[in-house]
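subagent[fold] <- orchestrator: predict structure for attached chain, return tokens only, no commentary.
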Amino acid sequence: MLNIFFLGLISFFTDLSTEMVYPLIPLYLVGTFGATHVLVGIIEGIAESLASLLKVYSGYLTDRFQKKKLLAFWGYAAGLIYKAGLLFASSWIGVLGARVIDRFGKGIRTAPRDVLVSESAGAQNMGKAFGLHKALDMAGAAVGILIIYLLMRGSDGDYDYKRLFSLSMIPAVLGLVVFIFVKEKKHKTVMEAQAVKPQREPFWKNIKKIDNQLKLYLAVVFIFTLGNSSKAFMILKASDAGFSELNVILLFLLYNAVAAILSAPLGRLSDKIGQKNLLVPGYIIFALCYIGFAFISAIEGFIAIFILYGVYTAMIAGVERAFVAEIAPQELKGTMLGLHSTVAGIALLPASIIAGVLWTNINSSTPFLFGAGLSLLAAIILIIFFRNRA
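subagent[fold] -> orchestrator:
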């Protein structure tokens, strides 16, 4: 598990760096550049979707050339370039460009990193491995938010966004340094395998051989993500409810802390009881969170919602990757992990645009009710058609 710890440590520093910036982006766009809620949704949707389309290709490259560590390194390095891009952004277009670079990096690194995690875990410990990785990932996010909160609290309301963006580059560099300690298992590349078996068909011709449960889950992921709009709308909803910029950051600190604490034990639990028994209640909890965002405006209510959102994240994030890694063919593991992320990414652009349009043309509660409905639909499909795997 030492290799998983180092991979988790890389994610710890990277998410520490990212979360020093992410909660500020919608506030920065609206407050500095006068962006509308629709524009915020479009920016987030474009950044997430364009990058996610790369994940299946990144997974394919991982399987074909077996350069998992190298691909992951350059994907994480893009996060450093992202922070530099924010420093020089002079309009919302510059922020969009920086966000695309960051999500481009995530699109490149996700599949090879997840393959490295899965190969470092035993067949019976997938949930435990991905849970540990996610716990370190979320812990880094919590620490990053705490740091940005302390820095902003000492600024008396005069926030120097450029200075905050500069400081966020330090942990990004530390994350890249940890790559020195990561080891990767060497397998035959697809090209080498094809040299031995010239008759081998490419992935897209073998799609029918992929586990039907995996196909079903990818469809469920698309449905769910179509209603899972950018977290930027959660930030804006809290801001509209009367939370200051500092208090919004504290809400995200709470959410990340809860997810960090619960990810590892829930990952281990999924190895014992099966993924379905966590995925279904996870989607239901997400729906409850979004219903809460739609109707609750009290401070105590928002605190409870963000705690519950942390529980949902811990139940879903590591478990879904463990499921995909477990049932994907060894020679297509990277491709399948990348495809999982890509399917979600394809839905992210319309999800954020729909949320922005519903917010602007109806009211701020409608996007969350829409998302809650699709989440419940995803849970129902899993209950009826999804086979538990323990």
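orchestrator: received. Logging for downstream: The longest helix spans residues 37-65. The chain is about 80% helix and 0% strand.
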